[in-house]
């Protein structure tokens, strides 16, 4: 079997490297390939580039991780967000008739009454959520074998990156810098490797449809930051709880959100990991 992965060098793509069965031939692709990466250049907004790469490599499955994921940047750049998150996905569907695995988000919900099941009513508040929901619809009408996995608050140790919530908390507290963290946005933060494992299993078991995957605990960002701080013996007093209103993020956020994952848990017969269990594996204390 051959799989082409888009957006391979982002947070989730890097985690996926070790979670696709070793007998699968994988074409890792991205717009910015690191020096140590062994991939192909692919911009999902470039229809010619897409067509050429697909006809050259003839994948059986495409896993689409490429997206504009900065939620506030999307809010200020609607056209670009739509171009990548929605039209990019349409381009993939136009160029490829096989199975697509599409990553989506809990931001398709309004956060009034979460956590959410797959069949709950969608109502995205932000540009990011709206463009990702449009992509879901395109993917679901393209091929009945297609798979959508919705995730939320993916985290990992991305060395030197302040874009990673985990690294931002750890670095700030190690430098004794106080941080403001929202205490009214509830999710189930999910280790990127936990999500990568699910993608690998879903591919192996040929699962199709819409599924949610999130790790075991539903917590606010503030509580998540405190768990991280305690885990690494850092000063929790430096973490200040703030409301979403006070923080003034550009894009509206679903507040009471998170993803109920019973459907996939049952099918795959797996357990959701705890935050501390994941932190133990991510960084030594
Ligand atoms: N992070 C989360 O909390 C979260 C939660 C739920 C769902 N998801 C979904 O999971 C997927 C992976 O997210 P992630 O956390 O790995 O985000 P990420 O680190 O931002 O990775 C996204 C990747 O897409 C690439 N990309 C952007 N525009 C592209 C284009 N036109 N063509 C090809 N590649 C492009 C980016 O790289 P360049 O800009 O260098 O090209 C980046 O490597 C996304 O679909 C996201 O919506 C993420």
List its salient traits.
285 residues, globular, single chain, Rossmann fold, binds NADP nicotinamide-adenine-dinucleotide phosphate, alpha/beta
Task: Describe it.
With 285 residues, the chain is of the alpha/beta class. The chain has a domain at 2-154 and 190-214: Rossmann fold (3-Layer(aba) Sandwich). It is 39% helix and 17% strand. The protein is built from eleven helices and 13 strands. The strands form four sheets. Strands 3-2-1-4-5-6-11 form a seven-stranded parallel β-sheet, sandwiched between helices. Strands 7-10 form a two-stranded parallel ribbon. α1 (11-16) links the parallel β1 and β2 (25-30). α4 runs parallel beside α5 and α8 packs across α11 (275-282). The radius of gyration is 18 Å and the shape is globular. The N and C termini lie far apart (39 Å). The chain binds NADP nicotinamide-adenine-dinucleotide phosphate. NADP nicotinamide-adenine-dinucleotide phosphate binds next to α1, α4 and β5.
Profile the largest sheet. 7 strands, parallel
What proportion of the residues is helical, as a percent range?
Answer: 25-40%
- The total beta strand count reads 13
Shape: globular
Ligands in the model, by name, code or SMILES, are: NADP nicotinamide-adenine-dinucleotide phosphate
CATH homologous superfamily annotation of the domain at 2-154 and 190-214 = NAD(P)-binding Rossmann-like Domain
Give start-end ranges of low-pLDDT stretches: none
* CATH top level label of the domain at 2-154 and 190-214: Alpha Beta
Strand content: 15-25%
Provide mean pLDDT, rounded: 95
Radius of gyration: 18 Å
Structural class from helices and strands?
A: alpha/beta
Q: What is the end-to-end distance? A: 39 Å
CATH topology of the domain at 2-154 and 190-214: Rossmann fold
Strand-and-helix sequence, N→C? EHEEHEHHEHEEHEEEHEEHEHHH
Which CATH architecture of the domain at 2-154 and 190-214 would you pick?
Answer: 3-Layer(aba) Sandwich
How many H/I helices? 11
Strand line-up of the largest beta sheet? 3-2-1-4-5-6-11
């Amino acid at each position: 079997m051959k799989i082409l992965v888009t957006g391979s060098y982002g947070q989730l793509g890097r985690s996926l490297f070790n979670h696709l069965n070793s007998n699968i031939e994988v074409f890792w692709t991205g717009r910015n390939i690191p020096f140590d990466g062994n991939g192909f250049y692919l911009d999902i907004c470039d229809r010619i580039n897409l067509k050429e790469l697909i006809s050259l490599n003839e994948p059986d499955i495409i896993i689409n991780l490429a997206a504009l994921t900065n939620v506030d940047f999307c809010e200020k750049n609607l056209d670009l967000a739509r171009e990548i998150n929605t039209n990019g996905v349409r381009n993939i569907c136009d160029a490829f008739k096989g199975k697509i695995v599409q990553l989506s988000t809990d931001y398709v919900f309004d956060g009034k009454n979460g956590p959410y099941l797959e069949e709950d009513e969608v109502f995205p508040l932000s540009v990011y959520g709206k463009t990702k929901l449009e992509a879901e619809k395109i993917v679901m009408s393209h091929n009945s074998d297609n798979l959508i996995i919705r995730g939320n608050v993916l985290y990992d140790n991305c060395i030197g990156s302040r874009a990673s919530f985990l690294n931002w908390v750890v670095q700030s507290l190690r430098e004794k810098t106080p941080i403001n963290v929202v205490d009214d946005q509830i999710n189930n933060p999910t280790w990127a490797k936990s999500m990568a494992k699910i993608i690998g299993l879903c591919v192996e078991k040929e699962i199709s449809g819409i599924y949610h995957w999130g790790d075991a605990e539903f917590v606010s960002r503030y509580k998540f930051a405190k768990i991280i701080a305690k885990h690494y013996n850092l000063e929790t007093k430096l973490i200040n709880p703030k409301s979403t209103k006070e923080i003034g993020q550009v894009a509206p956020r679903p507040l009471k959100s998170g993803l109920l994952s019973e459907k996939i848990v049952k099918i795959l017969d797996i357990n959701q990991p705890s935050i501390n269990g994941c932190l133990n594996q991510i960084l030594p204390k």
